């Protein structure tokens, strides 16, 4: 146990050093666009809207064998995603829950999503996108539905149980729809603009320098989209439409009363979730949201609770006894293997930072620090074994 404590202490040292690392970097921390880019793609009330041109392009692209030119001969499932993307995480967790093998292509949301090759895949310039050999499926909800329809047999469990009766199936569908109406990225940006609602501890990746950069990125988003529109004539109309929508959404989010309305809508959803969990008594105490099985509704709820926890809004929504059943649920779900494989860690953030323009000398210093931690762990381990 002592060497585990040693390693945990080392990780805490690295975590505390992250603000310093970020301050030394250039200000365009690329993973921050995982929030800004998705904010661009999501209306505050409805995420599913497509322009006619984008819808036609998507229908056309889904019938062509296109994709990353470097991976054009890829067989099987290939996910274009970003590890810090709220909607990407839903798909990643669903894939792991279904025990599916898949490859990933990490998209740098500092502009790579608007490259011509990626716009061929998704004309909206958004992640996640799933490529199943010659098929292209955009949008997290569509992807999960596609996985359910095409990969649900043998060792690949269903996320919408078909053998537990219509009541369970309808309940899963109901709660999934309810939860998916809560836009995690809207809550994220809103919590930065109105920090009085986020009194809990902030967790990776949303440490102080990141929050500051995200606020700046959100402020500059519309101008950046217009710049991309001039640089990418083929996607000009789509990008200008995004820029206009971003300005409207930002204006709405800056209004505190409008943000309170969004929070109240989330509270109503969480009241229904808490009531459902409270009904799980006796032999149902270890049930998940709708069933003894982990369903698509649990995927949506887990990723939403992860984001709320990361931005410091746990006290506002469920902790300290406010919604005890949700609090217990969140403790339990963190023990799932799919959770560990989906939610980015401190090391994921460090790797992202040094992949995107971190100073070489600083990279060497951190690498040395990590080596010292691992070396110290091995020494302690040998002592314990003796």
How many domains make up the 3D coordinates?
Answer: 1
Distance between the termini: 14 Å
Biggest sheet details = 4 strands, mixed
CATH topology (level 3) name: Glutathione S-transferase Yfyf (Class Pi), Chain A, domain 2
Indicate the radius of gyration in whole angstroms.
21 Å
Q: Fraction of residues in helices?
A: 55-70%
How much of the polypeptide forms β-strand, as a percent range? under 5%
The overall pLDDT, averaged over residues, is 83
CATH architectural group: Up-down Bundle
Q: What global shape is seen?
A: globular
Helical region count? 17
CATH class term: Mainly Alpha
Walk me through the structure.
The protein is mainly alpha-helical and 386 residues long. The protein has a single domain, classed as Glutathione S-transferase Yfyf (Class Pi), Chain A, domain 2 (Up-down Bundle), CATH 1.20.1050.130. It has helices at residues 2-24, 33-41, 52-61, 86-97, 116-121, 140-150, 166-180, 184-193, 208-231, 236-254, 256-278, 296-310, 314-317, 324-333, 337-342, 346-355, 360-385, and strands at residues 77-81, 103-106, 129-132, 135-138. The protein has a 4-stranded mixed beta sheet, covered by helices on one side. The two termini are 14 Å apart.
List the helices and strands and how they pair.
Layout: H1 2-24, H2 33-41, H3 52-61, E1 77-81, H4 86-97, E2 103-106, H5 116-121, E3 129-132, E4 135-138, H6 140-150, H7 166-180, H8 184-193, H9 208-231, H10 236-254, H11 256-278, H12 296-310, H13 314-317, H14 324-333, H15 337-342, H16 346-355, H17 360-385
Parallel strand pairs: 1-2
Antiparallel strand pairs: 1-3, 3-4
């Amino acid at each position: 146990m002592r060497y585990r404590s040693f390693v945990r202490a080392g990780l805490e040292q690295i975590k505390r050093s992250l603000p310093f690392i970020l301050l030394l970097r250039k200000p365009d921390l690329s993973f921050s666009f995982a929030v800004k880019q998705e904010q661009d793609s999501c209306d505050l009330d409805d995420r599913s809207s497509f322009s006619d041109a984008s819808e036609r392009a998507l229908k056309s692209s889904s019938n062509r064998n296109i994709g990353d030119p470097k991976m054009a001969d890829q067989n099987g499932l290939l996910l274009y995603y970003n590890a810090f993307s709220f909607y990407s995480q839903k798909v990643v967790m669903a894939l792991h829950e279904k025990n599916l093998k898949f490859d990933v292509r990490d998209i740098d949301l500092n502009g790579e999503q608007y490259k011509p090759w990626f716009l061929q895949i998704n004309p909206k310039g958004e992640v996640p996108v799933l490529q199943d050999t010659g098929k292209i499926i955009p949008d997290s909800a569509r992807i999960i539905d596609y996985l359910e329809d095409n990969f649900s047999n043998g060792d690949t469990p269903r996320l919408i149980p078909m053998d537990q009766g219509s009541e369970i199936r309808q309940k899963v569908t109901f709660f999934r729809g309810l939860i998916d109406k809560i836009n995690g990225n809207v809550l994220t940006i809103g919590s930065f603009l109105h920090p009085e609602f986020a009194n809990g501890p902030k967790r990776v990746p949303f440490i102080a320098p990141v929050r500051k950069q995200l606020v700046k990125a959100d402020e500059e988003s519309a101008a950046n989209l217009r710049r991309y529109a001039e640089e990418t004539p083929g996607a000009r109309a789509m990008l200008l439409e995004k820029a206009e929508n971003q300005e409207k959404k930002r204006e709405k989010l800056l209004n505190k009363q409008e943000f309170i309305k969004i929070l109240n809508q989330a509270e109503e959803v969480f009241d229904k979730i808490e009531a459902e969990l409270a009904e799980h008594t006796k032999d149902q105490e270890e049930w998940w949201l709708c069933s003894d099985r982990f369903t698509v509704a649990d995927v949506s709820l887990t990723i939403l609770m992860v984001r709320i926890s990361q931005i410091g809004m746990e006290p506002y929504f469920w902790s300290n006894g406010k919604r005890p059943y949700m609090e217990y649920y969140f403790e339990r779900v963190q023990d799932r293997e799919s959770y560990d494989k989906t939610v980015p860690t401190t090391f994921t953030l460090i790797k992202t930072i040094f992949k995107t323009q971190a100073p070489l000398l600083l990279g060497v210093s951190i690498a040395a620090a990590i080596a010292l931690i691992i070396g110290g762990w091995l020494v302690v381990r040998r002592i314990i074994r003796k």
